[in-house]
Design a protein that fits this description.
about 0% helix; 6-stranded antiparallel beta sheet
């Protein structure tokens, strides 16, 4: 009687450091709503942002990153530089690096969007606030 040994070979996929995920952060509450980091890697971060009806984020700018916003549900009023647009679900916009911008929910239901950040530095401290409804600007 012949004996045999069964072996299983599993291949591991090794991703280059540029696209390897660095984990997921917990949801962070803000006066205007909340955000959750869904994924982060070298040079990019993906967030789910929820803005309460009638609320808005600060008029702000980032030195080190650009942002893409894709509306999942609700209505977004976006100020980007001198332009203002209204976006609804499945519409998107791009905010270039070093451009003043603001996100607002003029609707009656929560605004949910996906934000994709790209840049050399993606820390929350890369925010220059020009105006803020919650007194978070530096004087």
């Amino acid at each position: 009687m012949a004996r045999y040994q069964e072996t299983t070979h599993t291949e591991t996929l090794h991703l280059p450091p540029a696209i390897t995920s660095r984990g997921v952060a917990a949801t962070e509450l803000r006066p205007w709503g909340a955000f959750t980091v869904l994924e982060e890697g070298r040079g990019y971060k993906i967030k789910r942002i929820e803005v309460k009806p009638g609320h808005r984020l600060s008029l702000q700018m980032h030195h080190h990153r650009s942002e893409h916003w894709i509306v999942v549900s609700g209505t977004a009023r976006v100020t980007c530089g001198e332009q203002e647009v209204l976006l609804s679900n499945n519409e998107s916009t791009y905010v270039p690096q070093c451009t003043s911008h603001r996100l607002e929910n003029p609707g009656v239901i929560p605004l949910v969007l996906i934000e994709v950040q790209n840049g050399e530095y993606l820390g929350e401290d890369d925010i220059i606030r020009y105006q803020d409804d919650y007194a978070r600007t530096k004087d």
